[in-house]
Queue: 2 jobs
Job 1
Amino acid sequence: MAGVTPERTRARPLSPHLQIYKPQINMVMSIVHRITGTALYVGTVLLAWWLFAAATGPEYFAFVNGLFATWFGMVVLVGFSWALIHHALGGLRHFVWDTGAAFDIPSVNLLSWGTIILSVLLTGALWLYIACERGWVQ
């Protein structure tokens, strides 16, 4: 740049970014909330496919049901149910914050840890119930 003195060309400080910040639970939960929201889009397409198969006929429904009954299909179903529960609990956490409550750091941390722990426990309870109803466990 013509006419610029050396003092004006020194490097400007960068904004803080992920390499600067130490990961904290509320930051991680914010990222996971976005990821589970995206995963729910994919899961909703799979749910629509399953409903379409049910409306199409018994042969196609058996085919789609068979895919969901494989080990990979079961992993997808468990993951979808966890994403749904986790995203819902994250939404409740944000609802609490929308009321103006629980903004102090201990409360933020408690709600964030509660979201992850409760989502895993509720998903486990849901699938234990399903396994008992299906006769997979006794």
Note: The longest helix spans residues 25-56.
Job 2
Amino acid sequence: MRVSQLLTGSLLLASFMLTVQAHNHKKSADIVDTAVAAGDFSTLVTAVKAADLVDTLKGKGPFTVFAPNDAAFAKIPAADLNALLADKAALSKVLTYHVVAGKVMAADVVKMDSATTVQGQDVTIEVKMGKVYVNGAEVIATDIKASNGVIHVLDSVIMPKM
């Protein structure tokens, strides 16, 4: 599958999600409300609340969020995930490691080899065999627009150096 095919499929998914979002909200939703409306980010939303990052991600931005879906969080052993959710400082580092300042659309992501996260460390971006990866996690959906940025969906949680 080529990058253009991946992006086209992802754009179709994003268009569908935006249609659902537009139907449910009179004004464009922010990143948090967009994630809630998508229905596949309940663990991420729980983590954002536990880290007290809701107001930040509802802020002006713009932000680019490489958002792990619920299946991505399910790959983490339950005891490890529960320990992370209980450690606000570590959780905040992990979550902000998934956020890049600015609105970086998929067409621009594929031209990058790294990006500096809000957490302060860089993530590595690679295109292999038509698929985009951030620190080895596959980007499985792109360009989910929000009023204060954009969401790209990851199939795994990426971890910063602690």
Note: The beta strands are 63-68, 99-101, 114-116, 122-128, 131-134, 137-146, 149-154.
